[in-house]
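Per-record layout

source: Ecytonucleospora hepatopenaei
name: TBC1D22A
length: 333
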Amino acid sequence: MENNFFSDCVNNGYINMVKFNKLCYTGVPVKYRGFAYKVLLGIYTKDLYEINEIDSNNFIKYMQMLETKENIAEKNLFKSHTASYCKFPVSEKIIHQIYIDILRLNKEYRIVCGIDFSYIYMNILLINAVKRPAIEYIQGMSDLVIPFFIIFIKNEIEKYFSDVKHFDTVCEPDEDFVDVEKISRKQLLSWESSVFFCFDALMHKIGHNFVNMHDTLINRTKKELKKVDKEIFLYLKKIDLDLHFFVFRWFNCLFIREFEIEKWFNIFTSFLSSEKEEFLINFALALIVKCRKDILGKEFSEVISHMQNLSNKNIDVCEILGKAVYIKYEIEY
């Protein structure tokens, strides 16, 4: 590894994971996020000399999940710039659910340099539905592809076309800003495979939460809130406001809808560097306590409105992360 952000975590080509996790918890510079996430998600091993082989093998595996179709005619599928589509049969119901959810995503997370890459979300989410039949697809999963799309597609393509001046990153796909054919099919698919394997590894770690959300995370959050701030706990109970009304979305989408994307990357990196469920609970508790004055004394509708619209509240993420660490030790000790 070059002398870079992670140099102090590496010795003789091997990563010290304790140091690596500790360093990542405080945030990772944009240029190193792809590497960091592959390590934190367990895609890369501690041995840095295995990285190229792992990426090559994953690319081959991903290609085996796709098939080439020059003239796509299936309903509710986006056109692929590589003419490669998920090869597995998926029910029309699931295809439609995924299609609608992708369309709901902000264009800046689908369209890069005037090119629509929505098909990448479709391929990845369809393959995931096949791999995980007990879950298939749950609304909000498309949001969890976003960080990997930004790192391995958006950032890489914008870097590739950095010599093209005065283009908008968000625009209609018909506008002739860049020629996607200048990027090789293999390169596009290589980037796409990185998105898939990161998302797949994330689902492997948190997929069970989609099935048992209420019985595990939400109930545990209620229990811990009573310890951390009994006054808030009792007040929410008094106005008959169940945490489920807002915490469910927080956990389902890992808070991505609650924060501006660059701030959210700090949250996500800290999440990957921690005990996953404990982090989600402690961060949620810290966020609730932060909103204390917007909860106590307010009506049901006011509290719901505030807690479901945190994205425009300009909340200090570092403050919440620090509070979450404090709560972790408060709960444990």
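summary: The two ends are 39 Å apart (CA to CA). The chain has three domains: 1-40, 66-204, 213-332.
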